[in-house]
């Protein structure tokens, strides 16, 4: 089912319950999840001044480079960074359950791109915050520790971006971030990002709603 007016959907959900709402926004790498989440956040708060909302990212749960180097095959782990097993899924699930319980302040990590590693406790979610929009790759994934996500979300949305467009964005992103050629960036995308995208795209139908921009 396609969700045409996500901001209105957030408002409708907030009107029918006083409980905290956890919305999961999934999508392939390069789909525009972060951009959309921040846009929805701005629009929602502009239109609904009496509501509280915060946007969080799954990216802060990347394993650090030091942790990846401790894995049995560190070279492969670093090359495949972004695959499900290169995240702290258990830590992610635990934090989401803390948010769901709404029993106090909850800290949240971010991914600091300038150093290429997560930073713990960088954000704080206050108990008063009613709507939390979490964006990330594997919000619909249920293997291993990710199975703990079952029952966490009040709704799940999938950003339905064409794979070729997402891939083109990733190539450009890699070129800008690393100062590499188009062919080198394409190689990186095909060796890792494309594999992650295939997995995420296979979970598309598990979402409650599809969102297109």
Task: List strands and helices in order, with pairings.
Elements: H1 6-16, E1 21-26, H2 33-47, E2 53-57, H3 65-69, H4 74-79, H5 89-101, E3 106-112, E4 117-125, E5 131-136, E6 155-159, H6 163-178, H7 182-202, E7 209-211
Parallel strand pairs: 1-5, 1-6, 2-5, 6-7
Antiparallel strand pairs: 3-4
Helix pairs in contact: 1-2, 6-7
Walk me through this protein's architecture.
- Residues 22-212 form the Phosphoribulokinase/uridine kinase domain.
- GO terms for molecular function: ATP binding; kinase activity.
- InterPro entries: P-loop_NTPase, PRK/URK.
- This is Phosphoribulokinase / Uridine kinase family protein.
- Keywords: Kinase, Transferase.
- The structure is a single chain.
- By secondary structure, the protein is α/β, with parallel strands linked by helices.
- The chain has a single domain (6-162, 203-211), classed as P-loop containing nucleotide triphosphate hydrolases (Rossmann fold).
- The protein contains seven helices and seven strands; from the N terminus they run αβαβαααββββααβ.
- A five-stranded parallel sheet has the order 2-5-1-6-7, with helices on both faces. A two-stranded antiparallel sheet has the order 3-4.
- Helix 1 (6-16) crosses helix 2 and helix 6 packs across helix 7.
- The chain starts with 5 loop residues before the first helix and ends with a strand.
- The mean pLDDT is 96.
